[in-house]
Specification:
- The chain starts with a strand and ends with a helix.
- Helices cover about 25% and strands about 35% of the residues.
- The chain contains ten helices and 21 strands.
- The protein is α/β, with parallel strands linked by helices and about 350 residues long.
- The strands form four sheets. The protein has a ten-stranded mixed sheet, sandwiched between helices. The chain has a seven-stranded mixed β-barrel with strand order 1-2-10-7-4-3-11.
- It is globular.
- Helix 8 crosses helix 9.
Length: about 350
């Protein structure tokens, strides 16, 4: 195989491969995802903004891209790195190839590299900056680019909606104000399916503006980056606690925790994939979950708040869920709306509906 592209890590490691998607140079944070299916949903998940994702499953592209399966209209992922890329998909739902979509949105890809070795490197040494460039670019020049490039911290403001958008269900029973920090489309679908009219709001919408909508509940979405980069959203939640039932997912979970006075920290390489086991501390059941995050809530910091832990990651004991019964607030670190699956945690949306009904009937 004749290599025409390479990726270079901050420690000088070089991996050579071939190009698919866009051919421009890109500096990103490198992470890995252990999902066996769902590369389209991964490509279009706003939480991957500014990140180059290594797919541990070896064959990518084989079922193409379906118009109905995007999690956002305009993908903002940094890059995609795979072992084997298939550009001739076999799927009656496919309307284009993965490479064509990546070219359209300026997303570079590289295939043919040893993704097992690269994943072990990320696991052992952590997520870090990576440059995707032409194979003949001198290493010295690559290292200079990596050293001089500062990764942006404005990801939420980039992917959030710019004005309110309303999504109506067939039969409307509840009204949810959803703060969009990079929300996946299946979250809205999950709420609509349960009779919720969803008003999606920009990430920095003030609490007073949300109160004017007179919602039955507040939802805070997933999203990219460090939760401490969105103090406006944290302040908004502080003002809304106790006034409405509140449910948060992923970044929303971290924002709720920070609003209560807990602390967050960056994980060595994060959790990404559809196969993470989580223990429900309230009933002892194990849920297989879909995850995508770099940050976690410090367990010891919860002791200084009104929050209690409800779920824990079996692999590393990180906090996966919190709640405050008094305020009708709860959140989880993982994605109960995951598409494609697993579906173990979809009951959490029903729990949110129940809280809104209790508030309404009180």
């Amino acid at each position: 195989m004749e290599y025409n592209r390479k990726l270079v890590l901050e420690d000088g490691q070089e991996y050579y491969g071939r190009s698919f998607g866009d051919t421009g140079d890109k500096v990103c944070e490198i992470v890995f995802n252990t999902s066996m299916v769902g590369y389209q949903e991964i490509l279009s998940d706003p939480s991957y903004t500014y990140q180059a994702v290594v797919m541990t499953y070896p064959l990518i592209g084989n079922y193409g891209m379906a118009d109905d399966d995007y999690e956002t209209a305009i993908p903002t992922i940094g890059a995609m790195i795979v072992r084997e890329y298939n550009d001739e998909p076999s799927n009656f739902r496919s309307s284009s190839t993965l490479s064509d979509v990546m070219k359209k949105y300026g997303i570079p890809g590289i295939y043919g590299i040893d993704t097992r070795k690269l994943t072990r490197s990320i696991r052992d040494h952590g997520s870090r900056k990576v440059l995707i460039t032409d194979a003949d670019m001198p290493l010295e020049q690559c290292m200079k680019v990596l050293k001089e490039t500062v990764l942006p911290r404005n990801a939420v403001s980039v992917v959030s909606c710019k004005k309110p958008i309303v999504f109506r269900p067939k039969y409307e029973q509840h009204h949810v104000a959803a703060i969009d920090c990079g929300m996946k489309s299946n979250i809205v679908r999950s709420l609509n399916q349960r009779g919720c009219k969803v008003t999606v709001l920009p990430w920095n919408t003030p609490a007073d503006e949300i109160k004017k909508l007179n919602p039955d509940g507040i939802f805070i979405s997933n999203g990219p980056g460090d939760p401490t980069d969105v103090p406006e959203t944290i302040d908004t939640i502080k003002s809304l606690i106790g006034k409405y039932p509140i449910f948060g997912i992923c970044l929303g979970h971290q924002i709720i925790s920070l609003a209560y006075g807990a602390e967050t920290y960056k994980l060595k390489f994060g959790h990404r994939g559809g196969n993470h086991p989580v223990r429900n501390l309230e009933n002892g059941k194990i849920e297989i979950t879909s995850q995508n995050h770099s940050y976690a809530v410090k367990s010891e910091s919860l002791e200084r708040t009104k929050l209690s832990a409800t779920h824990i990651n079996i692999l590393d004991d990180t906090i996966e869920g919190v709640k405050c019964d008094e305020d009708k607030v709860f959140s989880v670190q993982y994605h109960p709306e995951s598409a494609p699956g697993p579906q173990d945690s979809s009951y959490l949306f029903d729990s949110f509906i129940k809280l809104m009904e209790e508030k309404h009937n009180a």
